[in-house]
Amino acid sequence: MPELPEPDVAREWLATMTLIRRFEERAGEMYARAKVGGFLHLSIGEEATIVGSARALRDSDYLISTYRSHGHALVRGTPPENVMAELFGRVDGCSRGRGGSMHMFDMQRRFMGGYGIVGGNLPIAAGIALAGDYLGSEDVTLCTFGDGASNQGTFGETLNLAALWRLPVVFMVTNNQFGMGTSLRRHSAVTDLQRKGESLGVPGMRCDGMDVLETNAVVSEAVRRVREERRPVLVEAVTYRFRGHSMADPEEYRSKEEVASWRERDPVPGFAELLIAEGVIDEAERQRIDEEAIARVDAAVAFADASPLPTPESLYDDVYVLDQEVRGWYSLETADDRGAAAGGDEGPAGAERGDQRAAANDEIPQQLTEALAAGEDGRERSEEPA
Ligand SMILES: Cc1ncc(C[n+]2csc(CCOP(=O)(O)OP(=O)(O)O)c2C)c(N)n1
Asked: Which protein residue's CA is at the shortest distance from atom 3 of ligand 1?
């Protein structure tokens, strides 16, 4: 077993893992009560992987993850209030209510999201690392993704370039055994995931992702190598998600016995019991840590509930593609466009952009809201998933 960190550090790790667990449980409840729109992917069971790896970083390093990212925002220090408000789609959310569960973001804490596209965050991680190189910084980027994402084209393309250009990225595959309802051995020819980067020039390491100490020790070593040697490393963290892929998962692809056997290794009580056995905390302190987490999550829900929804008028804030620039279901005809089509002398609209244009077309939010409400957005509606 790797050495325990200083008592205060160990307490903080336990408190953060507990906060993530309690937050996720409540997020699931809030989803069931229709407080949260869209999809919701929980990382219950993966807390040791999240905390162990993120605590290997300096504050100035970058973290980028997937749609299963509430815990990543929390571990970087985004207040639970702002994470919950994001789930509720409120203005005080960390993405101002525009991103929802899958698109958490906190630039100030160098948490770079939150992405709905499987494997979509890998090239972005390489870009962040390349930018850091240009700036001459020592920053490392930790890029987490699932075992399923290791089959995406972006995995090979990004690892190849990262090795070639010696980019300081720790690629961490969170092997929770499934890509949606497909088990690792049914979706990947190579199941020893740490080796999947070898032919691309990226050496691999593995850790027990249910053990926060081992995860931290291995990822710390990976971060050190990446920072000093300026070349990428792939770490496989072996873990398990205790809940379904998303909230709409009947879980027919695995047995209750299998889930129960992994739950015996639950990383949160496991670490608490280790700290008690080692005399770092006692049972009363463990209780207190749990009660504090629950109280913080209560406060987050109250905060999110009290935070307003974004106004319809703000619909076009931060949107940079409008009407004639790109045609799609979201392309709305503005009064200017109609004038142009009717022989106006301005030609196709497009001279004005963004806020300026939106300000000139107050009717757009209303049109879009009505179109969406009437199901006229041209998209198929499906229950599942990201
Ligand atoms: C490019 C792309 N293909 C498919 C999907 C649908 N999808 C969402 S999650 C998921 C499974 C990904 O599994 P994994 O990478 O192992 O991550 P996990 O969900 O286990 O965290 C799939 C196929 C998607 N979002 N993006």
From this structure: 118
The residue among 360 and 283 whose pLDDT is bigger is 283
| Ligand 1 atom 18, closest CA | 146
Phi, psi of 207 (to 5 degrees): -140, 160
Residues in the chain: 386
User: How far lies 255's CA from each of 127, 209, 234, 259, in Å?
Assistant: 40, 21, 30, 7
Looking up tokens 């336990």 gives 14
The count of other CB atoms within 10 Å of the CB of residue 243 is 18
Q: With a 6 A CB cut-off, is 71 part of the ligand 1 pocket? A: no
Say how far apart CA 105 and CA 93 lie, in whole Å.
Answer: 9
Q: Average pLDDT in the 185-213 region? A: 98
Give the ligand 1 atom nearest the CA of 118: 26
Tens-digit pLDDT profile for residues 64-96: 999 999 999 999 999 999 999 999 999 999 999
Cβ contact 128:141 at 8 Å: yes
Question: pTM for this structure?
Answer: 0.86
User: How far is 178 from 175, CA to CA, in rounded Å?
Assistant: 7
Give the number of C-alpha atoms closer than 13 A to the C-alpha of residue 133, restricted to the C-beta side. 19
| 124 three-state secondary structure | helix
Confidence band of 56 (pLDDT split at 50, 70, 90): very high
Tell me the C-alpha distance between 134 and 167, whole Å: 11
Q: Which residues pair with 169 in a beta bridge?
A: 141
Return the CATH superfamily for domain 7-306: Thiamin diphosphate (ThDP)-binding fold, Pyr/PP domains (3.40.50.970)
Which atom number of ligand 1 is nearest to the Cα of residue 176?
20
Contact 45, 262 (CB under 8 A): yes
Asked if 160 and 123 touch (Cβ cutoff 8 Å), the reply is no
118 CA to middle of ligand 1, Å? 5
Domain segments of the chain as ranges? 7-306, 313-373
Residue 50, ligand 1, Cβ within 6 A = no
